[in-house]
Design brief:
With about 260 residues, the protein is α/β, with parallel strands linked by helices. The chain has a single domain (about 5-230), classed as Spore Coat Polysaccharide Biosynthesis Protein SpsA, Chain A, CATH 3.90.550.10. The protein contains eight helices and seven strands. The protein has helices spanning about 20-25, 45-50, 70-80, 100-110, 130-150, 165-170, 180-190, 215-225; strands at about 5-15, 35-40, 55-60, 85-90, 115-120, 160-165, 195-200. The protein has a seven-stranded mixed β-sheet, with helices on both faces. Helix 5 packs parallel to helix 8 (about 215-225). The longest helix has 18 residues, at about 130-150. The chain starts with 6 loop residues before the first strand and ends in a 29-residue tail after the last helix. It binds guanosine-5'-diphosphate (GDP) and magnesium ion (MG). Magnesium ion binds near residues 91, 95, 208 and 210. Magnesium ion binds near residues 91 and 210.
Length: about 260
Amino acid sequence: MHRGLAVAVVVPAYGEARLLPRMLRRLPAWVDAVYVVDDASDDGTAEAALAVGDPRLRVVRHSVNRGVGAAIATGYAAALAAPADVVAVMAGDDQMDPGDLPSLLAPLADGRADHVKGDRLAHPEARRMPLARRAGTRFLAGVTRAATGLRVHDSQCGYTATTAACLRALPLDDLWPRYGYPNDLLALLARGGFRVAEVPVRPVYADEASGLRPWHVVTILAVIARRWGAGRAPGRPRRAGAPAGARFGRSPLAE
Ligand SMILES: Nc1nc2c(ncn2[C@@H]2O[C@H](COP(=O)(O)OP(=O)(O)O)[C@@H](O)[C@H]2O)c(=O)[nH]1
Ligand SMILES: [Mg+2]
């Protein structure tokens, strides 16, 4: 429990036997439940997770690889089947600083947002992100803002926390299954009129290897295009606006 909230963490993991145990051992003691989603890894990822011996941990396995977005949707479903107030997502390659989790949860605990995501570009150590990553992220964030109307600055950051109520209302079976899922999730949130907040998180680049390739930008643009204008759909639910000055997605009331 953290600030009165039961906290679940979903960890998508594909070929992460080396880094996943280190990531799991760094999770704060107040996290209530952890769902590792192993997506048909062939390197013993699931066994490595179980060997950590954390009683909070459950491993869910896909029998064939379905992609990081599909794995997160599976993790969300598992987390929602148990009592949880908020569900965070942290990558299995130890690229998300657990020290940032309280700031991700704060807007949810304060009732100011439904979904909070990390913004690596707003962190004092933003320059740790490789230059091409920073440029690509800025470009994709611009397109995502235009498509959804949400004022997001790091659309590609997968470090998030969402209320269980919001997740229950989202059509998660419809979420894009592979790279590009964060943009698709933002479109679904915008379409539902949910309040999205960004908080600075530390960019971590160490000994991991990314599966993302430059050509994925084309896929991501296509994913964004398929729900273009989602946040401006007529008749979407109206929700309370965010406090002035916060880095929140555009409130329907402010339009
Ligand atoms: N379950 C699952 N996880 C994946 C898949 N592809 C990537 N991941 C995980 O998603 C996280 C982020 O992927 P990564 O390739 O490191 O992307 P990047 O950090 O944005 O460059 C890591 O924990 C990966 O293990 C997949 O196909 N299935
Ligand atoms: Mg990574």
